[in-house]
Every structure is written in structure tokens, then in C-alpha cells.
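Sanity check record (used in CI):
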Amino acid sequence: MYIHGKDVDKDYNIAFELSKKLAERENPNAMNRLGYCFEIGIGTDVNLQMAFEMYQKAANLGNIIAQCNLGLFYKNGKAVAQNNDKAFELFKKSSEGGFSGGISMLGRCYYMGVGTSIDKQKAFELYQKAANMGNYISQYNLANMYVQGIEKDYKKAFELSKKLVERESPDGMNKLGCCYEYGFGTDINMKKAFEFYKKASDLGNLHGMYNLGDCYENGIGTDIDRKKAFKLYQKVAELGYSHGIYYLGRCYKKGIGTDIDVQKAFKLYQKAADLGNSDGVNSLGCCYDDGIGTVVNKQKAFKLFQKASDLGHLYGMNNLGCCYYNGIGTEINKKKAIELYQKAANLGNRLAQYNLANMYKRGNWIEKDINQAIHWYKKSAEQGYQLAQKKLKKLLKE
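Expected output for HCP-like protein:
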């Protein structure tokens, strides 16, 4: 009551003292609350070690909320060595006790492979269960899975996003903006997309800030203002969001809202790549391949394209194919090049589609097939790739 100000005025000092007294009487709920006070700094200084100890005591006494909180400490390595196996077991206990937060985190473990093998179906089922209990994090994750996952349902994603917005969730506002931008479960409405990205951004949501930057850069629901886009990418990058760091590097490379500075671009791509961002990894490979902000190093370029490809980056796959085709940082291997072009082309990469079309047209290490060449030139051309449009036009005239 004193923490949230329910029926009484907020008083963090009283909340802390009451929790402390009740915890001394071996009350598991009070122990969990006291742990929260120590973790956040409510009525006392932040003390993660004391928070861990209180959560551990409460969890051992069967408190399902404390079990989830303790699991988060093990998952994130807070006040204790990171231990994903223990985190998984604690989330499982909390979930079995019926705590929606524990169910949600268990779903996250199955989704990401934390302390267990990846099982997207189990993750989906657990998110669904927690979402039905009103857990807003699971509602957000479930909305994402309805857009990207095993049971696509854009209408449900849209409805869940609206529910989250009703609860003033910044993540929900950003997701609803995505629904309006791409037409997930609703008509495309760029102005509404911009409005919801702005609302999310104003509340400090990193994805919202990044998407708002994209709106200003490309004129989505608003006038183009590349300086505003640059400032938003800069803010997101400063907060450590890897995609924001990558996009800030892109701004410096291309002069979007700022002066071109390829050295800064290179450093930012490196930073994003170090955080595991696939766009950053691929762009860093391009820097080493072409000598952008650094000296040319074809071997490093090859390794980075290989890493980007392993991360599922389509341009990385295409670039790795080019390395094998031309012997960049590795030996020529036309068979591997074809396999990579084919894989990336099937997944919709327009450059790979163009490269594959060229190979079918020439009959290079693949049986010559003009119909296949036309097919892939057409696919690439439909995505606006001008070289493919020219080649297709010429081929159809022959």
C-alpha cells in the first residue's frame, strides 16, 4: 500500500520498515517485498546482495513471485554468477505455482534457449497462457509471435497491441505503430504509425525512438527531417540499442542529417557488431572489403560476411556468396556461391536474386536456363533493383 499509494499516501520509508518487520517474522511475502525494496532502492539504498538474499529466503519458502525475481537475478547475473539452468528451474517453479510473470519468463526461456533447448511452440503456449492472465509482457511477446512466429495472425497481433496501448504500455504503442505502418491486422495508416511511434518515443521506448527516426528519415506519416532522424538515432545509440548504433553509423557513412565521417561510421559498425547486431556485422564486413574508414582486409571481410550469414542476414549471405564466387578472402568455390545466392534469393534478397539470374543466364557452374534467369531478374526488378530491370528488359527483347 505504501509503495504504490493505494488508499494511503506513498511513503517508501514506512513501506521499507513494515516489510523489514514482517520479514523478521519469516513472512515470505514480506521477504519478497523487502528484496524488491533493496533491489530498486525503496526507503533504503540499493543493495543487490541483500535483495538476492531476501528473494532466496522467500523463494525457499515457496513464494512464487520471489522465485521469479530470483530467477531474473540468475538469468542476468545480478549479485550472483549468471546461471541459466538455475534461472530456468526457478521460472518453472514460479510458473507451476501459477504466477503470470513466471509463466512469461518460462516462455522467454523456451523462446531464447535459456537453460533449455529452443522450443517456439512451448514459448507460444506459455505466452498465450500468461497473456490471458493479463501479463502485459506476454501480451507484447505474443503480439510479436503473431506477426513473425509459428502461428501468424495479424488481426490478433493488432488487437493485443491495442490492449497494451489501453494500459499505457510504451512497447504496445510501438507495436501498434508497426501494425499501422505495415498493415498488420488493419489498414495501412502512416499518420497513425507516426503518432504511435512518437507516443512510445516520448515515453522513452527505444524501439519507438528508432522507428520515429525512420519516419523522419523516410517521410513516413510526416515530413522528411533527416536532422531529427539523426538526433533520434544518436539518442538510441547512446542508450546502448544495437540497431540504433548501426543506424547512427549508417548516418555517418551516407551523410544522413550530419556530415559524412567514415571513421565514425566504421567505429559504430564495430560497436554494433560487437553487440551481435547482424546489420553491424555485415556493414563492418563491407568496410573491410572496400576500405571504408579502415584499411582493406579481405580475410576479415570474408569472416564477417560468414558471421552475418550465420546470423541469418540476407545481404550477408549474398556477400558471402560473392566472396566464394570471386575468391575474396577465401578460395573460389562456385558451388558454395550458387548455394548462398539461392538461399538468400529464396528468402527475398534482391541482390542475390540478381546474381542468381546472372548465373542462369550465363550458365556459369549451373545449367543455363533463360526461363530461370527471367524469373529471378523479374523478382529482383519488382523490388526496384535497377540493374535487374535493365537486364530483364534486354533479355525479353532478345
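The CA atoms of residues 146 and 152 lie 4 Å apart. If this sentence no longer matches the regenerated C-alpha cells, the check is flagged for review.
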